[in-house]
Amino acid sequence: MVEENNRLKSGNDYEYKRLLSQAEDKIARNDYQRAIECYNKAIELNPKDAIAYYSRGKVKYKLKDYSGAIEEFNRAIELNPDFADAHYRCGRAKNKLKTIMGLLKKFNNAIELNPDLPWHIFRRSNAKNKLKDYNGAIEDYNKPMN
User: Residue 143: phi, psi to the nearest 5?
Assistant: First the structure.
């Protein structure tokens, strides 16, 4: 019984990775709908892995489904709260929806988790500018970019 469960798990892991790879191939061919289908199947096999949600969010963002992208990035963050790029991309999607306060919060989270990535600070400075926090925006703009 244990051997059978291990074999099934191993098969699911292989299939999960195969689906993620297929999705990336579809994205490279600009076949975004089929990429989403691959991610959907991968999530059915492994609903606790943040990567597939995050990746599906990136595709939805490309398709300009910003609300859908935000849902995916938030799910990835629920599963892995330290996923800095999920916070960052969620902030970018919120920016597209003009939800500036949520955007600023996500960029702050991303910067806390990974302060060495300059685009997080740059995007936060843009959000501060949109909120008319000019001093805060200038402070961010003046931070050294590595």
Answer: -70, 140
Q: Could you tell me the two tokens for 134?
A: 């000019």
CA distance 55 to 102: 21
Handedness of CA 72, 77, 83, 89 (dihedral sign): positive
What span, in angstroms and rounded, lies between the C-alpha atoms of 20 and 94? 25
| CA neighbours closer than 13 Å in the CB half-sphere of residue 110 | 25
pLDDT (0 to 100) of residue 4: 41
Query: Which residues lie closer than 8 Å to 141 by C-beta, 6 or more apart?
Result: 122, 125
Give the 3-state secondary structure of residue 22.
helix
In the block, residue with structure tokens 């703009």: 141
User: pTM, whole model, 2 decimals?
Assistant: 0.68
43: how many CB neighbours lie within 10 A of its CB? 20
